[in-house]
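Hi there. Long-time user, first ticket. I'm pasting a complex I've been working with (about 1436 residues overall). I'd like to know whether the download I got is complete or cut off, because the file seemed smaller than I expected. Thanks.
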Amino acid sequence: MASTACFVIVSRNDCPIYESEVGTAPKKDEAAHLHQFILHASLDIVQDVVWTTNAMYLKLVDKFNDLLVSVYVTADTHTRLMLLHDSRNEDGIKNFFQEVHELYIKMLLNPLYVPGSRITSPFFDTRVRTLARKYL
Amino acid sequence: MEAAGAALAHLMRDRFSPVVMVLSTPRAEESCRKNHLGFVDLLRPFSVLDQINVPVRTASEQPYRLQDFQLRIFNASEIRQPSPEIAEEHLVEIVTNSSDDAVGALQGDPANIEVVKQMAESETQVSWFQRYSKSFMSTLAFSEHEALDHPVACLLVVSSKDESPLSQFVDLFNGNQLPRLLNEGAMDPKILKHYVLLHDVQDGALDGCNEILFEMRGAFGVNNCGVLPINSGAPDVAFQLDFWTRRSSLPIIPSSHSTSELVCIVSSDVQITDFLLDVTLKQVIPHMEQKIRMLNQQVSATRKGLKNQLKNLWWRKGKDDTPDVQTGPVYTFSSMESQIRVLADYAFMLRDYDLALSNYRLLSSDYKTDKAWKHYAGVQEMIGLCLFMLDQSRREAEMCLDTAYNYYQKCGGLTAKYATRTALWLSEMHKARGQFREAAGVLFRASVEELDLRAGVLLEQAAYCYLRASPPMLRKFGFHLVLAGNRYIVCAQHKHAMRVYRSALSIFEDQGWKYISDHVHFHLGRLSHFLGSFDLAILHFMKLISCSHQSPTNQSNFLREFLYVVQNTVGKDKLLELDLPAVKVENVCVHFEDHRTYASSAAAAAPEEIWGPVEEGLLPAVTVTLHTWMDAPSKSLPQVKDFNICVAGEDIGVDVEFSNPLQIPIDISSICLSCEFIETAAASEEIDSQISKEETADISASPLFLPQEAFSLKPEEKIVVRLMVKPLKEGVLKVVGVNWILSGVAAGHRDFAVLGPRIKRSKSGARDEPLPHQRLKFHVLRHMPRLDVSVHELPARVNSGELHRVVLELYNPSKVPVKKLKLKSSHSNSLLVGDPADLDMEFPSCLEVQAQEGQQEVHNAESFEQDSSPSGLVFSFPEGTVLEGGSTVLWPLWFHASHAGMLSINTVIYYESDGATVGLMYRTVRMTHTIQVLPALCISVQISPSPMHLQQFFLRLDVENQHLTESFWLRQVSCAGDHWCLAPLLPPMVEQEGMGGTDTAEVRAAFLSASVCPSQLLPPSQTLSLFFKLLVAQHKGRSSSEEVTSNIGLGPPSSSEPLIDISSGPLFRFLLSATNPMSDSGSVDVVLISEQQEGMGTVQDSLRVGAHHVCHCSVQGAQPFVWVMEAPKCVVHDFWTQPFCEVSVTLTIRNCSIFAASVRVETLDLPSAASSQTTQGGWTSLGVSTPPSGESSKAEPPRKSTSGVPNTEVMVNRASCGPFLWCNLQASTIHTLPAGASAKVPLRIAFFAPGSYDLSRYRISWTLLEFEPTSSLSTAATSKEALGTGLGHPLLLTVVQSIT
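Hi, the file is complete. Here it is re-exported in full:
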């Protein structure tokens, strides 16, 4: 079954620092901006939801038609890991977020990486895709 | 209720006001036509009654008062639902027409978010959206499932001009022009009728009508009749137009009349107001009251109370099995449900919301059980509205509306539109309560199910709701605007789309969400193009074209659209700040030539530092004004640094890096620099101003020559292009940026943003902005010749030691002659300037010894030496060397690399122009050549003193071929200088007298073939040792012949190869440069000359000659002293006559060290028995078999190991030959022996018997005087030699008994 999943890490200043289409659905050109639109718009919701809970995993925060947005907020830098998906698999998504968060922390430990700048490491990318295959 | 709620309530009251139907005769309409208005249009502006105070008593006994009331007046023909197509068309028209209003409502730029927000907050009933929503709702009016729009009263209008008005009245109502609602039985046909006689005052006085009125009253009743006089007023166009256009609401069905060009005569409005007031208060309201009371009674009788409820339940149950049709059962006006609905609606219209609510609730359960979903939804909708009007239980109101929405939606088809209507009400309610997020949600949900255009409108409203939410949800706002824009585009509502996209742009721009901003820019670009604002379109597309993150298909799409727009609009005329291709504007490399010119690009690329030492002494000294901190900072200093200097007519190159960020190839053409050029006003040449003006006019058309480049960039390719500009005139040139044409369509331009280094001013402490660097500014000076210099025949790879003749070519392309040429090279010991005569000769052979020219060559070499030594190796070309314009000079250079490795030779040639009218004093040409020097032959020399002769040494020459592949021919070994000469160390040619002549010849041939060198060819990685005798030259008498003999050909003696002259020519000069001229004469310089044949052919050109120098070989051996005992070889003595023989010998000691020394000579007695008796096994040494006769020098075979060290063992052996006694002092001391001096010590020996004696029984010990290890740089080895001893050399002396 082809599923859509778009994973984005949004930095503190609302810039995407990492984007990848991790779904199995064939990539379409028009999907790219639609996914960005939905994720970008749901930042407004995240902004509200984040103050209502202590958990870092915010679960489903927004939806657009049949596309759902799940969000995980890191504690320190208010970096948001956002996943746009169309399948309801809460546990998998939660695990995925936790593992990616770990990866992201490792990324931050890299002295050559400036926090808040774009993540260009191919290693990070491969690992995220592997995790996506595993959990989503 | 707050203000917003009150406004909404007012809106609802307006919308749900009683409908009055008008039926009029054609003549009545005709009278009204004089005003270009229909009768209905005439009445409508007065239908709002706002200054009334009417008591109303409905079901309850307690009356209440209405302060204002409104009627909706429609023609009978309008009381029907328009067909969906017409309704949609009408709505589309509204949207289209309001596009300008919408822009106007934004007081400012739509891109500014504050302006949008202000607009959204100040939304009023006249906003285009409210107009739209009103029109939309009115298209849904007159539905059979609700009684709100059913006419409450009917106005029958007959003109006073009509014949038999009474029958006309009857005909009007019976005609088939009644609305469908009445005909189909959806409503009660027995409605309130009011008969109106319309009288046109212009046709006659009102009195004529009274008769008819009287008749009417008789026929229809007194209260139901009235007369309305019109057209009584004076024409007053301005007032009238304004009045009607303002008050008239737009009819649903577009009527044919146009209000624009009417010349009207209207009745005074007072009459119409009075008329309507009268109708409303005396007819409509009482009628409604009465009907409510009646129906209420009926409902109470049939439905209220437990009995009725049970009965109803039972009755309904029975109908359970009715099929669930979509519209549910059809209810006629007489059905109970319709009655209740009418009751509730009338109560709602009369604002008795409690009554209405209770009846709606009663009804809703009925409809639900009947599964009449449409009716049910309609009732739910009204419950919601009632609750809102009562301001009770908000939650329930919302739920009811929500239910209504869902059920309407469930019915589908055209009924779904009612869902939208419900959603609109719900969103308005949310908005009135400040719940903007909920309102937005409702609108968004409605938009999903709607048609494109309405969805667009709804989405736009949803977006504004998000904006008004607190805190504003800007991203949602932007997203919904984009969604709305998308829908607008689908419906070809370009202006609306443009507006919303522009509002959205500010949200998405420069946020890093690239796909989003690309999408917005793309649509904005397209819309702008469509709407004709091309500049804007290009601006948006420009932001798109460098999108590296998009897929190649999108990239090419964007690029194509951009090019299409540009091609159709501005074309190549306008320079655009394009990002495609990406230009590195901060990093450009400028190549220009002021007084420094470069012979090759490699020279230009060399760092500036390397030229400093080379140019030292070559350039005229520059006066540098020194500043101290006490001086005032000079203002002129930055001015000087402001400009670079270049020469007119010469190219300036700017290296610009272009890169293609896309994954598609792009074509770029006509790339050139954009420059500003200011010609210097020829102020001094005022006399010639006339002529010069004309000239400048001609030339100034193109004071610059800008060659254009073109190339194609592959995906993600990056190239550096050198763009040229050639100023043709003097002036100030500033390179501003670079222009290009993209794909032959769009002209692009980028300015260079070259910044200078940051200058920190210490005084203020503040860091200044970096000044724009002056790298790109040029002061163009007048023409100055520029020499083209090239070096020919210089190989890129040589073997070390190889000698090459290279040719320096100087070409002066200008017309101005050039003089005072000078040359300096960084490696003066590798590159020498030759003599012009060298050019004429064949290369290898010119090195050979030429007896007749010998003297002259030496002289020449000396002159060169004089040239070079004082001025730091600057070679000045002869004074007369002038390069005329267009002429070429060739000059030979000699190249010789002595060490392996990479050799980069930097050479500078200095010249001055002959003409006075040039811009520069002088110029230099810089050349750099990199030559790889491979290791070839490595030679080392070891010299040891000869034990036989003080003036003779043995020289061992070790040659190692370090080259990996090539082999070398050893040709010649030479010893340079006058002090030494070499002699081959050959086996003695024994003259065997007794043999025959032929044998002698054979032996001689064998000798000749066995030359010094066993094999001339030295293959790779092989070593060869050669031995020579080194003699001190007695250069007193025979200087020139001695020179010749110092060269030894290594070929067989029979070979006729000429020797190579190392005492003159380039070889000599290279040798000179290798040796330190200050060196003492005691050292030896040895040159080995090798040659290589390239290929198999023996062509002379391909012969490569190498010269290897070993310089400063010290003749000093291991010991600082050499000594030789001189004694006769053979002494004849008659021992019979004299029992002992006394021989005097001389010991000569020479001090080879550089210190004075004291020397002590000891003669030794017979050694003790223990030491003398030890005889060595194995080899006994040489001395015994040595023939007593013959020259001792020749008898010495070539020995390697023993040459330096005195052999004590030999001496010991020899001691057993026989006794002899020293007859002198046992020790004599020479207290001071100066360096290099020699001393003789006379000794005497007594022999007692004939025999051969070894005279080595002496010992020399020395002490170096003035020897200070600290001052000397020599190593520890020498310090050991400060004190030393040496034993005597073996020397045989034979004493023979004389026979006589």
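A couple of notes from our side: Chain A has one domain: 5-135. Chain A touches chain B through 17 residues (CB under 8 Å).
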